[in-house]
Design a protein that fits this description.
By secondary structure, the chain is mostly beta strands. The protein has three helices and 24 strands. It is globular and about 55 Å long. The structure holds 4-deoxy-L-threo-hex-5-ulosuronic acid and zinc ion. Catalyzes the isomerization of 5-dehydro-4-deoxy-D-glucuronate to 3-deoxy-D-glycero-2,5-hexodiulosonate.
Length: 276
Amino acid sequence: MEIRHARHYEEIERFNTTELRENFLIESLFEDGKVNMLYSHEDRMVVGGACPTDSPLVLEDADTLKTEYFLERRELGIINVGGRGTVIADGKEFELDTKDCLYVAKGTKEVQFINGEGGNQARFYFLSSLAHAVLETTKLSIEDATPVQLGSEEESNKRTIYQYIHADGVQSCQLMMGMTLLEGNSRWNTMPAHIHDRRMEVYFYFDMEEQTRTFHFMGKPDETRHLVVKNEQAVISPSWSIHSGIGTGRYSFIWGMAGENYTFTDMEFVPMDQLR
Ligand SMILES: O=C[C@H](O)[C@@H](O)CC(=O)C(=O)O
Ligand SMILES: [Zn+2]
């Protein structure tokens, strides 16, 4: 898998567009019949996409992780952004419909991704972070996730945040994962912006038309940059960075975090007059 090292915020003050994209944008996760993964040194998060076709796909990369099996020292969160499919964790089958989530515990020796029959192709987006304890492998469908309403139509940021893996939901060691759906013509996410110095975050944008682009804002609050993002691309957000975006059309996104503090509300809002 591709490896990305962590970057200091002082470096990115000098980055051009290509350097910014090479370091923080993940351009292609989904490829038919493949599992694509990227290892980020930001809290050692693995970002991946599994797109099974005729045969099952297995989660593995012993060469990179240097462990006997993938989840020997890690936990995993999966959200299906395609048609129906199945994940098998050590022989136990979990059917995942669109926007359903599965947490897979540390110690699980084999994880397989299987495409559902008929309908749209299953597309499993996943994140894996380090884990210190064996918890319970748990499925959570979108209907059972905790919805949090934020924003307003007036500010073009009316959205519902579905929290799946977090302190009051599916339990994990440090991984937090959920999904944000924008309502009507709302196009802004996470504005007012925030940072959380104790956690990194990964954004995965999806449900976008081919020509739609999201302008994702990153950087220290007083030194912002942007990335132009298209459907099914992801952004790595270091703990010093804001993460916010506006779309030229409809989009949804999956956010995931890893790091020290496990409290969703451990975030500092950035006053508007600090943004540059
Ligand atoms: O730390 C939390 C994450 O950035 C997301 O939950 C934010 C988000 O989905 C939003 O405001 O739209
Ligand atoms: Zn955040």
